[in-house]
Write a structure and sequence with these properties.
mainly alpha; 13 helices; globular
Length: 307
């Protein structure tokens, strides 16, 4: 969590101060905002994107330790890679909002899979829910669905009610939430950095954690300035310890034979799927680059012919 604070919150705080002192920051003009539900046309336009990101969020939610932020960032990256207008992302492109919000909301349902079937909480929220289940004598395991089907149904009904409540709160409160834009970014950054320091300290009541946010945060700001994405770093920090532990266990059990990783069907299938995903991303990047190059050549040709 300290690493996520340092690599996602601190760089934007530093950027807000840099823009303020460089004179690049301008006061935000907030117009009258009212909530509107998406039209049928909007839903149909982004339907397949929502479906893909919902599946992605559910899958990420089923992985203990990942959580909503990881799902949102991966969904945003997927939407940007698959979009025909990637240059509009970061400037209010609706597809980016749809992808991030869909994946983030889908994580909650996915997190119930390891929690109710194996008793493994995927994030702090499900850990609290696990404590509540144990207090009431409900032990999460596969037999829970047979022995206590009513309680399981109540949990999923509560999730559905929570989704409806979130929509209602957002529709009613959007007029007030948007007023945060009136606050100058450098002043808001002060409040954010205070909350970051407090959050880092509260995790383990350690002053070292609070101070250690600064150095990785500065490094993350440098990476952000040169255009290097931070999400892969966070993925490595989140999954790295578990992968290293399981790697050591597998090597010990196999007496140092690396073929154990592809000896079973899942061990052979998942690396293949990973290779397909990487290949598809590379193909999309190459196609986008070639398309941009052709567009630039056509523009230059039209300018030359007009002269």
């Amino acid at each position: 969590m300290v690493a996520m604070i340092a690599r996602f919150a601190v760089p934007h705080v530093i950027d807000a101060f840099v823009q303020h002192y460089a004179g690049e920051q301008k006061p935000q003009e907030v117009a009258d905002v009212r909530a509107e539900l998406p039209t049928i046309r909007d839903i149909l336009r982004d339907f397949w994107l929502m479906l893909r990101c919902a599946l992605l969020g559910t899958g990420i939610g089923a992985i203990p330790g990942a959580g909503g932020p990881i799902a949102a960032f991966l969904a945003y990256a997927h939407a940007r890679k698959s979009s025909k207008r990637p240059e509009r992302f970061g400037k209010g492109e609706m597809a980016g909002v749809v992808a991030s919000a869909t994946a983030n909301n889908a994580v909650t349902g996915g997190a119930m899979i390891p929690l109710l079937s194996l008793g493994i909480p995927g994030d702090p929220a499900t850990a609290i829910l696990l404590s509540g289940l144990l207090i009431h004598g409900l032990i999460p395991r596969p037999m829970l669905f047979i022995q206590n089907p009513g309680e399981v149904c109540q949990i999923y009904i509560a999730i559905i009610v929570a989704y409806v409540a979130v929509v209602a709160i957002q529709l009613l409160g959007i007029r007030f939430f948007v007023q945060v834009l009136r606050v100058p970014a450098h002043l808001l950054a002060v409040a954010v950095i205070v909350m970051c320091a407090y959050g880092a300290f509260a995790i383990r009541n350690s002053v070292f954690d609070m101070v250690s946010v600064a150095v990785p945060g500065g490094m993350a700001y440098g990476l952000m300035r040169v255009g290097i994405p931070l999400t892969p770093i966070i993925l490595g920090l989140v999954f790295g310890p578990a992968i290293e532990r399981d790697f050591r266990t597998a090597m010990i059990l196999s007496e140092g034979d690396p073929s154990v990783f592809v000896a079973s069907v899942p061990g052979a299938v998942f690396p293949g799927l990973a290779a397909l995903v990487v290949g598809a991303q590379l193909l999309c990047s190459i196609r986008a680059t070639l398309s941009a190059r052709r567009t630039e050549e056509k523009r230059r040709a039209s300018v030359t012919s007009s002269e």
